[in-house]
Write a structure and sequence with these properties.
Elements (H helix, E strand, L loop, with lengths): L1 E5 L16 E5 L6 H4 L5 E4 L6 H6 L4 E4 L8 H12 L5 E5 L6 H9 L8 E4 L3 E6 L5 E4 L5 E6 L3 E7 L8 E3 L9 E2 L4 E5 L5 E6 L3 E4 L1
Parallel strand pairs: 1-2, 1-5, 2-3, 3-4, 5-6
Antiparallel strand pairs: 6-7, 7-14, 8-13, 8-15, 9-12, 9-14, 10-11, 10-13
Amino acid sequence: MKVWLLLNGRYATPPIVPDKTDVVIAVDGGMRHALQLNVIPSLWIGDFDSTPKSLMAQYPQVSLQVFPTLKDDTDLGLALKHIRRSYSNVEQITLIGAFGNEFDHVFANFWLLPHFQIPVIAWGEENHAVYLPAKTKLLIEGVSGALVSVFALSPLSGVTYQGLQWHLQEADIPSFSAFSARNVLVGNQAKIDWQHGDGLIVLEKSSFAKFL
């Protein structure tokens, strides 16, 4: 199954929309994106400090999980914990509204992801970002010359690139290194995977990504 999380950052029109079988969860003020996606989430979660009352009045049928404003977690963290508790077969998570003007919020969104070990794609206005856990293959489609940057959130081993200018085969990438930043598509497709570790892949907005 696939899960979509609507966060309170800037909306970017995704290249695909939720399927009828997908689970859609609104996270606090991210409910404002539901209208643009033409969906009604099954759950609305958060402390609701960024949700106007007028927005809440539009969705009285949606189940709520309300948390205190003073807490030791972010609203996205609460949503990810709910997913882990409630579903055992999540193939991927799609984030809408993961990017915005508050860098600490944006950073926290991606900093949390390795703890849950679920592949994630975040569609953005300027860039897209992909959290790729070990033994998961990513297909990238785009134009020749498009930038592809890989950042190791932990040491990566068994790294293989296909279709990128700087090709790797079963290589190692140390964590917190710029070694693998700003690679380039040489055709219109590339594949990336690794055997151990957690990485974040940043793509140009013209590129598309999906897990294989």
